[in-house]
Amino acid sequence: MVQAFTGEHTQRVDKKGRMSVPAEFRRVLVDGDPDCAEGENPRIALVYGRHLKQNIQAYTINEYQRLVDEIYAMPREKARDQSRLAHLYITQSLKLDVDKDGRIILPAKLRAKLEIEEGEIYCRGMIGHFEMWNNDIFEATVNADIDDWLDDMGDDFDPLSKLGGS
Description:
The chain is of the alpha+beta class. Helix content is about 35%, strand content about 25%. A 6-stranded antiparallel sheet has the order 1-7-8-4-3-5. A two-stranded antiparallel sheet has the order 2-6.
């Protein structure tokens, strides 16, 4: 069974940048960290590349390594794309330890990207990773976009029809 980041959570960031990782997400991080022995705390990989605009993506160590391996395996004729992807996903990333209380410390640079010194961070599970957003920005952008999409589809629209299998 694939462990996935699911659900939505609002987490508080304090003045020092400490933020509790949702407990449900911590279980996925533990399962996705090959160096995390039972009873130890997992690591997390945060990607903050410019392509992400106003959010940060968080990966398990295994899922992040899979991305790195895919970028590394790109053919030579794609060297320019490889360099760009490496910049966005490898250079503009960092690995953090989750502490014994289930918290990480978001560096000031990442809090600035989220436009938050302290306050609420919205976290949403996206299967292989989760995203962190300034709650207000999420409401004004992503939620507004989803509302517009649903409105455009009509009252009898079934979102699962987009899966194509039925």
